[in-house]
Each structure stands twice: as structure tokens, then as C-alpha cells.
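Complex 413.
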Amino acid sequence: MMPPLQINAERLRSDFEALSRIGATAEGGVSRPALSEAHLAARAWFRERAAAGLEVNVDPAGNHSAVLRQPGARKTLLLGSHLDSVPQGGNYDGSIGVLAALEVLRTIKEAELLLPVNLEAIDFTDEEGTLVGALGSEALAGLLKEVALRHPRGGRAALEAGLARAGLKESHLLEARRDPQSLAGFLELHIEQGPRLDQAGVSIGVVTGIVGSRSFWFTFEGRANHAGTTPMSMRADAGVAASAFVVAIRKIVLEQFPQCVATVGQMTFEPGAFNIIPARARHSLEFRSVDGDALENLKTLLLERACSEAKKQECRVAWEQVANWNPVAMHPAAQAAILQSAKAQGVETLSMPSGAGHDAQSLAHITPTGMIFVPSVKGISHHPDEYTEWAHCVQGANVLLGAVIRMATQHER
Ligand code: HGY
Ligand code: MN
Ligand code: MN
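Predicted structure with manganese (II) ion bound:
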């Protein structure tokens, strides 16, 4: 029996090292927030690398892709991830999926392997939600709503500045929508970003489903006053109200919603001085679960608690929901293709849900979608110390290659 086709590991490594230098931080990671100069530089690099032998495409949502056309093919199998990062992020989140996808296309082209579907290695815009959240993949899947653009998670100013830098027109973003009938599926290689594979000593994760999440901005309004002369009993301290709510969020999730996680990642007080009682406190809140009902029940409870904590401090509270992603299952055919590919390479697998969000959760709504995880050492991610053994990156790319061939050959021309 022929050994399975393998990617060119040296070429993948040289791409990974070149890309890691774009937006590199002193701490050893990368900072390439969506449509920032560093992100645009990474996209220019991708276009140049892809142009060597493949067709390059940029759609109205800025999604960048390399295309390997196949004679007579009517559908396209998408594979890829995202080149944008969180601020002060790591080198592997998203990057390894885009580079492995590009390497799969080059390997199949060099092997002169003819498939019944086109292959497209794609880098989606703003997966991380610095601007909107899964902006490019939601636009391609036809899920992007005007309301998400009017009230984006990262604020209107950041969105407008990013689109201007990238030369993208907000009014054209939705034109990136693809006809689901034109797609044969989507596969994404990604780091796990959690500790399970690393702890289990297993090198390939087969994702069964991806968590849903809800994102909000909360604003507590109190009364600014002199920090020295105002008796404690006469204060309407927005900072205390918000802080009490943040502590309550953790308590409620730990005690009543063990299937959820919640995070307050940003918080500001205004006017913001040692000697002024905060008039306003604004903070983010994001909570996630694979259980859609739990998300809605937790949302109800937290909104009630925000009101009661505000009242205790004689403050007012307002909120704005800025993201709403539902849990999605990965397609059985995609999971089977990944499992068969890993088995053919003698690689042990672990089937598992994803606690992180991904572009795959947009694509899962319109085409058979699957994800392959590779281990994150100590489960660290969204941090410069994010690290995956290089052998696992190569193995993940080879499992992606085998899964692509299996999913592609399930189609007729
Ligand atoms: O936030 C996430 O789960 C992903 O890294 N965007
Ligand atoms: Mn990611
Ligand atoms: Mn991420």
C-alpha cells in the first residue's frame, strides 16, 4: 500500500518562521489585531507566497485565499483559518491553520493529484473579534448582520479605521457571501488552546462541536464626587457597583453554571483619578458554553444581578449585547474524514468539543465542516508563551492533507 502523501515540512517551517516575524513582539509572540498594519503586512506576505503557483483571491470582506482549480470542478472545498491575532498573542493561533492549508494545496498540486473539487486555502478577516468577531467567515457564510456592524464589539471607530486601512467598503462586506451549493465543505487545523491533548499525551484532536458565546458591554452610572470629603454612606460609586457585579458573575457561574465560563476582559472607570469617586464604570463580559439553553439562562440571571448590584450603590446600569454565537456541531462526514486520515498515519486521536470560538462555527451553518486540533503545551494560548511542538504541527498538516483528499473524493465533478 502506498504511504499517504505528506506535506513539505521544511517549506511549512520556513513559512511559519517568516510569518512569525510579522508583528513579532518582544515577548516572543505576535500582535496582529485585525486590519492593523501588522495584519495587513501578514496578508501581503500571504498573497505573495500564494501567488507562487496558485490563484490569489481577495473577497469584499477582505478574506484572502489561494485557489487550486481542478478541471471540471463545480464545487470548492475550503480549508484555512485566520492570520489576525489578539493583542500580545501567540504564534500559532490561526496562523498554523492558514499555513497548513496553503501547504496542502502546494503538495496536492506538486503531486499532480486531480480531485473532483477545487481547493481554496483561506485566511478569514477578524476572527478574533478585535473589530466585530468572525467578520470574514460570517460574511462568507451569509450570517453577518448590519446590526453587528452598527454595534461592533470593538466599537465603530476601530471598525471604520480598520476598513479604511484595508481599503474595504463596509457597504460591500455582505457581498462576500458564497452560495452554499458552491461549497464542498470546510476544514480547519487549529491549536487546541486548552490543556486536554497535552495532558492526555494525544497529538490530534477531532473536534465534535464548538461553544456558543454571548458578549456584552456594561455601563454603571453613579455620581462623581470628592474622594476625601464625601462620607462613604453618601456615595453612588459606579466602580464599586461594577466590581461587585464582576465578583458576583464568577460566583454565579461557579455555583450554578458549571457548564459555562465567563470572562470580564476589559474595565475602565471615569473620570479616572485617585481623588474622584468614579461616576462611570464600563466593562466587557463574555460567557460561553456548548449548552445553548445554559447561555440564555445565565444571561437572564446576570442581567438581573447587574440591576441589583447597581441599586445597592444607588447607581444605574445599562448594557449592550455585541455578539451572539450559538453552539455548533461539527459534521459527521468531516469528523470521519479526519479520523480516517489520522488512522492512516498511525496517529492516536481524541474527540472533543472546542472551548474556543473559530471560523468553523460560521462555516458549519452552510457546509459540512470539521476541525483538527493539535496540542497547546500547558494549554497556554492568547499569550506569547503559546507553543505547539513542531512535530505536532507537521502531523496536523498531514492529517489535514489526508482529510482534504477524503472529503474531496466524496464528490463528483
Ligand atoms: O476567542 C476565541 O475563542 C477565539 O480565539 N477567537
Ligand atoms: Mn483562532
Ligand atoms: Mn484566538
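The chain is about 35% helix and 20% strand.
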